[in-house]
Amino acid sequence: MTVKQHTPSNFHVWFDYETIKKRNAELGEEISKFYNENYPGEDVLCVGLLRGAVYFLVDLTREMSVPLTVDFMTVSSYGSGTESTLNVKILKDLDTDIAGKNVLIIEDIIDTGHTLHKVRKMLLDRNPKSLHIVTCCDKPERRLVEVPVDWVGFEVENKFTVGYGFEVDQKFRNVTAIGYCED
Ligand code: PRP
């Protein structure tokens, strides 16, 4: 399977854009149904974690039928190993006060779980009315910290994920497919 964008030479497609769009439509419908049933008529604040989640956020939010706004934050993780030795620093915070709001974190991938675990805690401290999480991809084999994820697009193998927001040296995020690079 080929894509028209520039890809690494060792790139293999897992999910082409047609498959991704179909899955996003399913997720958008499920998520909208959830908010319509639980928080009818209320706005949903969609929080994207820069930079990887941008492509997924744009496509997913266009499949959602509830009233929504978007905002972004950038965090960087450093350190490794156990939860206590890993730090997540906010490089760009939200512009929105989330107190009393229905927040939906839109993430591109959950790997060890450290990033979302910390971001979730930080956002819960700000007293949102509700906080839910959707991720485009999930790599459960790599999980070190449990995160309550509400919706998952695709479960992926423990390989170097590329495309649809995932990068190699900051490149290839624009590839429309999700795939992996062979070592
Ligand atoms: C990636 C990804 C998640 C995080 C997942 O971000 O976008 O935010 O790592 O890893 P974890 O579950 O092990 O914490 P990255 O720092 O590569 O930034 P990016 O979004 O700019 O690609």
TrEMBL record:
It is found in: Cytoplasm. Its EC number is 2.4.2.8. The keyword Cytoplasm applies. Keywords: Cytoplasm, Glycosyltransferase, Magnesium, Metal-binding, Nucleotide-binding, Purine salvage, Transferase. Its main location: cytoplasm. Residues 22-165 form the Phosphoribosyltransferase domain. GO terms for molecular function: guanine phosphoribosyltransferase activity; hypoxanthine phosphoribosyltransferase activity; magnesium ion binding; nucleotide binding. One of its GO terms (cellular component) is cytosol. Pfam families: Pribosyltran (PF00156). It comes from the Bacteria. The keyword Transferase applies. Pathway: Purine metabolism; IMP biosynthesis via salvage pathway; IMP from hypoxanthine: step 1/1. Belongs to the purine/pyrimidine phosphoribosyltransferase family. This is Hypoxanthine phosphoribosyltransferase. The lineage of its organism: Bacteria, Pseudomonadati, Pseudomonadota, Gammaproteobacteria, Pasteurellales. The gene is hpt.
